Automatic annotation (TrEMBL):
<feature type="region of interest" description="Disordered">
    <location>
        <begin position="509"/>
        <end position="560"/>
    </location>
</feature>
<keyword id="KW-0378">Hydrolase</keyword>
<comment type="similarity">
    <text>Belongs to the sulfatase family.</text>
</comment>
<keyword id="KW-0106">Calcium</keyword>
<dbReference type="Pfam" id="PF00884">
    <property type="entry name" value="Sulfatase"/>
</dbReference>
<dbReference type="GO" id="GO:0008484">
    <property type="term" value="F:sulfuric ester hydrolase activity"/>
</dbReference>
<keyword id="KW-0479">Metal-binding</keyword>
<dbReference type="InterPro" id="IPR000917">
    <property type="entry name" value="Sulfatase_N"/>
</dbReference>
<feature type="compositionally biased region" description="Basic residues">
    <location>
        <begin position="546"/>
        <end position="560"/>
    </location>
</feature>
<feature type="domain" description="Sulfatase N-terminal">
    <location>
        <begin position="53"/>
        <end position="365"/>
    </location>
</feature>
<dbReference type="GO" id="GO:0046872">
    <property type="term" value="F:metal ion binding"/>
</dbReference>
<dbReference type="InterPro" id="IPR017850">
    <property type="entry name" value="Alkaline_phosphatase_core_sf"/>
</dbReference>
<dbReference type="InterPro" id="IPR047115">
    <property type="entry name" value="ARSB"/>
</dbReference>
<dbReference type="InterPro" id="IPR024607">
    <property type="entry name" value="Sulfatase_CS"/>
</dbReference>
<protein>
    <submittedName>
        <fullName>ARSJ Arylsulfatase</fullName>
    </submittedName>
</protein>
<feature type="compositionally biased region" description="Basic and acidic residues">
    <location>
        <begin position="532"/>
        <end position="545"/>
    </location>
</feature>
<keyword id="KW-0325">Glycoprotein</keyword>
Length: 560
């Protein structure tokens, strides 16, 4: 009993030391919490809480697999640890290796090969966005009465107005359109001389909000405002896509206090950013309780891809990093926290993928999934809440036909089934197959961050035999991808290559257009924003049609 009391005291002290708001500071003692949980201090059930849950999806940016307290990190994340411990930890959870792909799959429930976004990310100067014929998660939730709000990073294209978040299902949007930018000034340079402002409220530049506030804190304040002004008896979908902990590595000074001992400057800055993010999620949770949402809410937390070691992130003991199809690039931190869970305080080791949130959340919201929508995601709520088997047995990590081809790849190396020069990766049950150029493949242990600068001497390097373009791993037995089994099990390799070939037959053409000079913010009032004008294109075509008619008439007269 004494030991438990001491631990509890230390836990409380640590929260206060971090500068978190105490529960009582918001008037949330036990009595007030019960009163506010129904919204207006009525008896529970008196207001008739909606059977549709409030959905809060929190997406962190570039958080490494190891970079959470419950995965053994030296970075303290008491909020994430507590929410995960009281909910369900997802320990076989996969996303995509980069920003745009994960976000597109979350919002559509489809693999990249089915949206045309299978190569890289959407660049600021590209006339490209999530194809408009794809139905989005907020659109489906609006159909069944949800209020839909997005706060944070969009990164799904904006070259025309129809691509903007408010045109893709969100009632309101406050955040950035690009993949990264300064956390305080909200400016982004894509290349020398191509720079602009990137903070939006709905469809307009949010100059009024440019008060030099750190984006993680600014986004949290916006979430609190949305929750304060909404009626908790009506269902709400909140998509909070924090910019943190993506580069540039910036954080308010007070968050460095506990990490002065970290010599590596990138790791130290990264730790401070993550500490601030953890506090932000604490404050979001407080707001859910204060304004009466919590008891009927589902909070989902996910990183969008693995960490980038050169920018302070750690995926140890997994292999590889952001931008690769090794486990370190695609296996993510994730959990679900909700009073509605049946098996609270448990760990889910069933296969879960970011596409699964689309059908899962629509079903929980009592919505309908159209039969003509060909989804790649599965409803996995019973898997998470009740501990049942996952309906998912495979994941197409990706097929990227225009990524740099592996020099030694060939159809022969793929047994005539698949060209192994093409970058691809697939998981089927316990097996994972990679072909082509899988990217940076080192293991980066914690001691790699022990020096002032990046130190690759500590990294475990692997020298492949010349010409290697196929790898096979039993991920269940070997989650760190240390033992390549492709030579030992050629029949398994062939089976997975056939599965890749089947998926590839359903792929749509890649959308990756060249830069458009009209995207320059200088031509748009110094702001990154839609530049493609459909009306102008129509006018031009109408003018050319008119000119052609006049020419034809002149020619007729001459002929006469």
């Amino acid at each position: 009993m004494v030991a438990a009391g001491v631990l509890a005291g230390l836990s409380l002290l640590s929260l206060l030391t971090y500068g978190y708001l105490a529960w009582d500071s918001l008037g949330l003692g036990p009595a007030q919490t019960e009163a506010t949980s129904t919204g207006l201090g009525e008896e529970p059930g008196a207001g008739g809480l909606s059977s549709q849950p409030h959905i809060i999806f929190i997406l962190a940016d570039d958080q490494g697999f190891r970079d959470v307290g419950y995965h053994g990190s030296e970075i303290r994340t008491p909020t994430l640890d507590k929410l995960a411990a009281e909910g369900v930890k997802l320990e076989n959870y996969y996303v995509q290796p980069m920003c745009t792909p994960s976000r597109s799959q979350f919002i559509t429930g489809k693999y990249q090969i089915h949206t045309g976004l299978q190569h890289s990310i959407i660049r600021p100067t590209q006339p490209n966005c999530l194809p408009l014929d794809n139905v989005t998660l907020p659109q489906k939730l609006k159909e069944v009465g949800y209020s839909t709000h997005m706060v944070g990073k969009w990164h799904l294209g904006f070259y025309r107005r129809e691509c903007m978040p408010t045109q893709r299902g969100f009632d309101t949007f406050f955040g950035s359109l690009l993949g990264s930018g300064d956390y305080y000034t909200h400016f982004k340079c894509d290349s020398p001389g191509i720079c602009g402002y990137d903070l939006y409220e709905n469809d307009n530049a949010a100059w009024d909000h440019d008060n030099g506030i750190y984006s993680t804190q600014m986004y949290t304040q916006k979430v609190e405002q949305i929750l304060a002004s909404h009626n908790p008896r009506k269902p709400i979908f909140l998509y909070i896509a924090y910019q943190a902990v993506h580069s540039p590595l910036q954080a308010p000074g007070r968050y460095f206090e506990h990490y002065r001992s970290i010599n590596n400057i990138n790791r130290r800055r990264y730790a401070a950013m993550l500490a601030c993010l953890d506090e932000a999620i604490h404050n979001v949770t407080l707001a859910l309780k204060k304004y009466g949402y919590y008891d009927n809410s589902i909070i989902i937390y996910s990183s969008d891809n693995g960490g980038q070691p050169m920018a302070g992130g750690s995926n140890w003991p997994l292999r590889g990093s952001k931008g690769t199809y090794w486990e370190g690039g695609i296996r993510a931190v994730g959990f679900v926290h909700s009073p509605l869970l049946k098996n609270k305080g448990s760990v889910c080791k069933e296969l879960v993928h970011i596409t699964d949130w689309f059908p899962t959340l629509i079903t929980l919201a009592e919505g309908q999934i159209d039969e003509d929508i060909q989804l790649d995601g599965y409803d996995i709520w019973e898997t998470i809440s009740e501990g049942r088997r996952s309906p998912r047995v495979d994941i197409l990590h990706n097929i990227d036909p225009i990524y740099t081809k592996a020099k030694n790849g060939s159809w022969a190396a793929g047994y005539g089934i698949w060209n192994t020069a093409i970058q691809s990766a697939i998981r089927v049950n316990h097996w994972k197959l990679l072909t082509g150029n899988p990217g940076y493949s080192d293991w980066v242990p914690p001691q790699a961050f022990s020096n002032a600068g990046p130190n690759r001497w500590h990294n475990e390097r692997v020298s492949w035999s010349a010409g290697k373009t196929v790898w096979l791993f039993n991920i269940t037995a070997d989650p760190y991808e240390r033992v390549d089994l492709s030579a030992r099990y050629p029949d398994v390799v062939k089976q997975l290559l056939r599965r890749l070939s089947q998926f590839n037959k359903t792929a749509v053409p890649v959308r990756y257009p060249p830069k458009d000079p009209r995207s320059n913010p200088k031509l748009n009032g110094g702001v990154w924003g839609p530049w493609f004008k459909e009306d102008e294109k129509k006018k031009k075509s109408d003018k050319s049609k008119g000119a052609n008619k006049q020419k034809k008439n002149k020619n007729k007269k001459k002929a006469n």
